[in-house]
Design a protein that fits this description.
The complex is a heterodimer of chains A (219) and B (421). Among the domains of chain A are: 60 residues, no CATH class; 91 residues, no CATH class. Helix content of chain A is 63%, strand content 0%. Chain A contains eleven helices and no strands. Chain B is built from nine helices and 18 strands. In chain B, helix 7 links the parallel strand 16 and strand 17. At the A-B interface, helix 4, helix 5, helix 6, helix 10 and helix 11 of A face strand 1, helix 1, strand 4, strand 9 and helix 8 of B.
Chain lengths: 219, 421
């Protein structure tokens, strides 16, 4: 902008463009008028330097271009009907984040533990003769469930060496085992107890797969 | 909208400079010549801007009031009425979010000279509701694709799909009634079918209601009192908050669509039985039809269920404020109104609403489409949470119809068996 205030060709188009026009015009004149070309003779070293400089600049531009984002208008998929989430999708998402191992994983694990713990307490109150305080105490102290991985997850306790070894061999997080065992334990407690209200409405419900081993018996 | 750079040819100048630079440095004229060829490409990339399209767009439907499940053919014709060549144009039609284009895609790529036209044809399957097409989205590019321009053009098109609700489900109502005669058996003695009590004969009592057995036994005249059958005032309340839009699988109906279908079946049966029926939505979009009876009222309910934004197959825009909504619905509900609340019980708010309405004296029956499954940890968790809610609601004295994949009448029959025990 400062250049433009000076007036004339430089002011109108800037120093770089002016220099370019002058140099290209000189080259074209040199092509046509051989005497002018002779007058423009430059040392070999200078020519090499110019070539090297151009090559380096070219490399700079190319590497810069690799980082540049290609911009395209994205239309999405308007032909498809808008989909809605399945119930529990947010728990699945939170579980995935909790197992990701990044900075926010601990926070997601804490939130998941709270949700699972509340569900476990509610299920214990509903399906056993415990009141809420006793149920909460059983879960938080690790006395329920008897499955050690689930108990460790729900009570925020230490996972046993056996669970850690199993997780290592399966290349799985101990938390993944803890979360899965917790839902197995709560589900087993909920489904194992015959309650009148449930029996009437279960005709359309598939039985969930419970992957508990025989030693993982529950109260 | 303004055109923008796509960065498609970015780096070409660098390559040219690199090649020419190496050519000069090593004294290789061939490389310098290759660089000159590259300059041609660079000039091509810089040539021209993405044109601003001047278009005439027309969208036609084979039918604008189809029945659910009907296939509607859509034809979108785009004509270049400007003076500019549109050498590279992409067009995507704004299919309504509730509909799905089947078969062919709702998009095309075209090059249009002035006066030329191109047409894209596709088919959508009609589902219940009022569906408005969104803007047509258009992208034009210059010949090299280095510049792009995005524009949207509105073409007003709407399809209305109002289903005929079958009276398939006769939900047993609870004992909160009006003074009108109907089918709900009350504890009030009078005329009816079911025995209630006997009382001393009064002059003018119908002869057929005299207890002749007692007369034979004791010689006294007494009159049989039968349970009066009265009409009920029922408000069908559909939970259509964003949280209620859940589905077991993406291909099938979601919980709100199932709730609306169920409301349609229930209101047809209720209106047919002479009950006074109202309609409301627990939704950011306000929807309320006060309880009423008669054919005209039935038609109005059907229209609202079929086309109101609150019952759309996709969530309404806007925020939902439960306290404001609850105060409003409380003011609207008459004291003798009972509520049939259709909700998937996907969160605590729905259960809280049922309990609060019940506490305010409106007998509540929940019809809950069950969309939970057991395919993932999250879905198993959601199933358990929902079953806990069902249990708590039943313990609070609220009737619940747990409606899985079976027809609604089967679920109601199963619930009725439990209620009668």
């Amino acid at each position: 902008m400062a250049d433009r205030s000076r007036g004339g060709l430089v002011g109108a188009i800037g120093w770089t463009a002016t220099s370019g026009i002058v140099l290209i015009s000189s080259g074209v004149i040199a092509l046509i008028v051989s005497e002018f070309a002779a007058a423009l003779s430059v040392p070999e070293v200078f020519l090499s330097l110019v070539g090297a400089f151009a090559a380096i600049q070219g490399l700079r531009y190319v590497s810069g271009a690799r980082r540049a984002d290609r911009v395209r208008t994205s239309f999405g998929d308007p032909e498809r009907r808008v989909t809605v989430p399945t119930p529990g999708a947010e728990i699945d998402e939170k579980t995935a984040r909790a197992l990701r191992g990044d900075r926010s994983a601990a926070s997601h694990r804490r939130q998941l533990r709270t949700r699972f713990r509340e569900l476990a307490v509610a299920a214990l109150v509903a399906r056993t003769d415990r009141d809420e305080a006793a149920a909460r105490d059983a879960v938080e102290s690790g006395r329920w469930p008897t499955d050690t991985a689930a108990a460790a997850f729900l009570s925020h306790g230490r996972f046993s060496i056996a669970i850690r070894a199993r997780a290592f061999l399966r290349r799985q997080s101990v938390y993944a085992i803890g979360i899965e065992r917790s839902i197995d334990a709560i589900e087993a407690l909920w489904d194992s107890t015959t309650v009148q209200t449930k029996r009437d409405t279960s005709s359309n419900r598939r039985r969930p797969q419970t992957r508990l081993s025989p030693e993982d018996s529950h109260e | 909208m303004r055109a923008f750079d796509t960065n498609r040819w970015v780096g070409l100048n660098g390559v040219i400079l690199l090649v020419v630079g190496i050519g000069i440095a090593i004294r290789a004229p061939a490389l310098v010549l290759v660089g000159v060829v590259g300059v041609g490409y660079a000039a091509f990339a810089a040539f021209g801007d993405a044109p601003e399209p001047t278009l005439e767009i027309d969208r036609t439907l084979s039918e604008d009031a189809p029945d659910p499940g009907d296939e509607v053919d859509v034809s979108l014709t785009v004509r270049n009425v400007g003076e500019t060549w549109l050498s590279d144009m992409r067009i995507v039609d704004g299919v309504p979010p509730g509909l799905e284009a089947t078969g062919r895609p709702a998009r095309m790529a075209a090059a249009l000279a002035p006066g030329e036209a191109a047409t894209v044809e596709y088919t959508v399957t009609a589902v219940r509701g009022e569906h408005t097409w969104k803007d047509v989205r258009i992208v034009t590019r210059n010949p090299s694709g280095s510049r792009e321009r995005y524009v949207e053009r509105a073409v007003e098109t709407m399809v209305r799909c109002i289903p005929t609700f079958e009276a398939g489900s006769d939900l047993p109502l609870r004992g909160l009634t009006t003074q009108y005669s109907g089918r709900v058996v009350t504890d009030v003695g009078g005329s009816g079918v079911e025995f209630h009590s006997t009382r001393e004969y009064r002059a003018g009592d119908p002869v057929k209601r005299i207890d002749w057995n007692r007369r034979a036994r004791t010689g006294e005249l007494s009159t049989l009192e039968l349970r009066e059958e009265r009409a009920a005032t029922v408000v069908l309340l559909v939970d259509s908050r964003e949280e209620a839009y859940v589905a077991r699988n993406t291909a099938g109906q979601n919980a709100v669509e199932r709730s609306v279908d169920a409301a349609g079946q229930l209101f047809t049966a209720l209106v047919g039985n002479g009950d006074r029926v109202g309609l409301g939505a627990m939704s950011p979009s306000d929807c309320w039809i006060a309880p009423g009876a008669g054919t005209a009222h039935g038609v109005r309910l059907r229209e609202q269920l079929g086309s109101h934004q609150a019952f759309a197959s996709t969530p309404s825009d806007g925020k939902f404020y439960w306290p404001l909504w609850f105060n409003r619905i409380r003011r609207r509900l008459r004291r003798d109104a009972q509520v049939v609340f259709l909700t998937p019980l996907s969160d605590q708010t729905a259960a809280r609403t049922a309990r609060r309405l019940d506490a305010h004296g409106h007998l509540v029956t929940i019809v809950s489409p069950n969309e939970t499954g057991d395919t993932s940890i999250g879905s198993r968790f959601a199933r358990l949470e929902r079953e806990l809610q069902l249990m708590r609601l039943r313990r609070a004295g609220i009737r619940v119809v747990d409606w899985g994949e079976e027809p609604l009448r089967v679920a109601i029959a199963a619930a009725e068996r439990r209620w009668s025990r």
